[in-house]
Amino acid sequence: AEEVPRYRRVLLKLSGEALMGPAAYGIDPSVLTFISKEIAALRRLKVETGIVIGGGNIFRGLAGVAQGFDRVRADQMGMLATVLNAIALAEGLQKHGVPTKVLSAYEIRSVVEPFVREKALSYLEEGYFVVFAAGTGNPYFTTDTAAILRALEIKAEIVFKATKVDGVYSADPVKDPSAKKFNFLTYEEVLEKNLRVMDLTAITLARDNNLPLMVFNMQEPGNILKAVLGQKVGTLVGG
Ligand code: UDP
Fold this sequence. Notes:
Low-confidence stretches: none
Order of helices and strands: EHEHHEEHEHEEEEHHEHE
Structural class: alpha/beta
Distance between the termini: 32 Å
CATH topology: Carbamate kinase
Number of helices: 8
CATH class: Alpha Beta
CATH superfamily: Acetylglutamate kinase-like
Number of strands: 11
Radius of gyration: 17 Å
Shape: globular
Number of domains: 1
Helix content: 25-40%
Bound molecules: uridine-5'-diphosphate
Largest sheet: 9 strands, mixed
C-alpha cells in the first residue's frame, strides 16, 4: 500500500547533541550519516521539511558565561555553532539525495544564504529541505524557540522535537523507574507540571499559536517516518 503522509509540511528540531554520538564534543560522522538517512525518508514521501538545529555539541551560551564570557557574546558564539551544524547536516542530507539549502539568521553571505522568509517558502515549494541556522539571531533565546518561530513562519503543521528518550515522562526515566510516559499533554499541563519539553518561551509561543509538538526518540530507526505518517511515537503536545 502507498504510504500517505499525515503532514504536508513539518519543522524538525534537532539538538546539537543529536550529532555528537558517544563523544563529548563535535560532530560524529556515523551519527550524521544515520540522521541524514532517517530524514531522507521524508523526501520520498514529498513532505516539505524545515529543520532547526542547535549548537550545544559545540558551544552553549550559558557555558560560555560560566567561563567568564559576556552573555551576549557567548550567545553569538552559540548561534555560530549552530551554523557549523547546519552546514554539516545539509552536506549529510545532500549526500543522501536530499537537495538542501541553509538559511541563516546571521548574514554570512559567502557561506550560507541569509534567512528570508519568502525564500524559505519558495525553496520548500520547490522540494528543497531547508536548514535554518543561527537560531533566532538574537541572544537570550534558544534554538527550541527558533524552531517554533520558524515553524510558524513557514506554516508547518507540527514541530517534531527529536530527543534521546521516547517521549515526555513524569520524571527522569533513567533516575526514577516509576516515571510514566505521557501519550498526550496540553500546553497547560506542560507548564503546570513544569515538564522540560522545551523552554518556557518556546512552549508559550507554541501554545499562543496552537502549534502542536511531537516529542520522540530519533535514535530509534524509522521513528521520524512513523511520526510523519501519523503513527503513535512519543508524546504529542497540543491544545
Ligand atoms: N542561541 C541564542 N539565540 C538563539 C538560539 C541559540 O543565543 O535564538 C545560543 C545560545 O547561547 C545557546 C546556543 O546558541 O546556548 C546553542 O543553542 P541551543 O542551546 O538551543 O542548542 P541545543 O541545546 O539545542 O543544541
